[in-house]
């Protein structure tokens, strides 16, 4: 069982632009349809037993998929924890748990719910950083897109220098993405 941050990022380390948009990423089509990712993404998702995301990610999903009117489009089949200090609307039928505060006790609940499968930290970067700060982040899986944004929502707004992350895998996906997998030491 691992706690993993699996996300797409620009070359300069941003997961969204200044407006919180991922339009820069969707110019490549649905990332799950990219050559190579077609096989790896379903394999990754099949190993996930619980997920977590911050409120900005959750609100972006609701807006992008119009989930309040189309709850059947909720993309996750696993229990999902949404960290927020604000009240957020619930998506009908989605297995979502709204939480706030320290990530450590919530992580313990997530691990139990995952029942031996992995915990996916969907985003954002600051939430993932909180898991890192508590020693709960095991792996980063980054699909790097061939763009730079200059500013926006950072991939992981933490200083990680010693010990450095350990590169464990590199995959080339067509002529667009490269996937880097790092182990947190």
Describe the structure.
- This protein is an alpha/beta fold and 185 residues long.
- Helices cover 25% and strands 30% of the residues.
- It has 5 helices and 10 strands; from the N terminus they run ββααβαββαβαββββ.
- The strands form 2 sheets. It has an 8-stranded mixed sheet, sandwiched between helices. A two-stranded antiparallel sheet has the order 2-8.
- The two termini are 16 Å apart.
- The relative contact order is 0.25.
- The mean pLDDT is 93.
Core attributes:
single chain; 185 residues; alpha/beta; 8-stranded mixed beta sheet; two-stranded antiparallel ribbon; 10 strands
> What is the residue-averaged pLDDT?
93
Number of distinct beta strands: 10
The total of helices stands at: 5
What is the helical fraction, as a range of percent?
10-25%
Largest sheet: 8 strands, mixed
- N to C succession of SSEs: EEHHEHEEHEHEEEE
Sequence-ordered SSE layout with sheet pairings:
Layout: E1 3-10, E2 14-16, H1 23-26, H2 37-46, E3 48-54, H3 55-65, E4 80-83, E5 96-99, H4 103-114, E6 118-123, H5 125-133, E7 139-145, E8 153-154, E9 166-173, E10 177-183
Parallel strand pairs: 1-6, 1-7, 3-4, 3-6, 4-5
Antiparallel strand pairs: 2-8, 7-10, 9-10
Task: Summarize the entry for a quick read.
With 185 residues, this protein is an alpha/beta fold.
């Amino acid at each position: 069982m691992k706690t993993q941050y699996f996300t797409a990022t620009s070359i300069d380390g941003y997961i969204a632009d200044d407006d919180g948009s991922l339009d820069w990423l969707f110019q490549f089509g649905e990332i799950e349809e990219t050559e190579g990712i077609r096989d790896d993404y379903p394999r990754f998702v099949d190993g996930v037993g619980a997920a977590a995301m911050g409120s900005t990610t959750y609100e972006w999903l609701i807006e992008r998929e119009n989930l309040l009117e189309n709850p059947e489009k909720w993309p996750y089949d696993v229990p999902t924890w949404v960290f927020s200090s604000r009240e957020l609307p619930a998506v009908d039928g989605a297995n979502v748990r709204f939480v706030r505060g320290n990530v450590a006790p919530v992580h313990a609940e997530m691990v139990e719910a995952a029942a031996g499968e992995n915990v996916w930290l969907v985003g954002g970067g600051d939430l993932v950083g909180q898991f890192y700060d508590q020693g709960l982040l095991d792996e980063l899986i980054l699909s790097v897109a061939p763009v730079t944004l200059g500013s926006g929502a950072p991939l992981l707004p933490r200083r990680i220098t010693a010990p450095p992350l350990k590169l464990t895998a590199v995959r080339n996906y067509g002529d667009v993405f490269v996937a880097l997998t790092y182990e947190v030491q």
